Amino acid sequence: MKLLVEEDGSEVVEQAAGQAEVVAALLLSYVEARSAFARMRVDGRLDSTGHAETVSELDRLWATTARVPVDGDLVARAATLADRHGLRAYDAVQLAGALEVAAADDELRFACWDGDLRNAARDEGLAVLPAQP
Hints:
Helix content is 59%, strand content 9%. By secondary structure, it is mainly alpha-helical.
């Protein structure tokens, strides 16, 4: 989202993405982004043209994004994380996906602005962006 819509933290994410060899996202993040853009159109933050342009930009970005699939093992890990950290369901799934990527890439940085999810990610040993909220 922060790569597509200017908001608090966009600059941090743009810089990190520019330096990264790979940008990865949970497969379900595409639906999350499209839902957010639709809500922005409904509440007037994006007009129809802006909405169409933002969706087109998402599609261009998505084509170069490594996608983390959601399968039964990831869902089971997310359930354990939800229990362990008291996370909301989707946050637990996002964290499980990040941990899966981190197992193969020890330089992973998890971009997150939600306090509970940031704390859980740190507790699980992930480096988070921004370093300070």
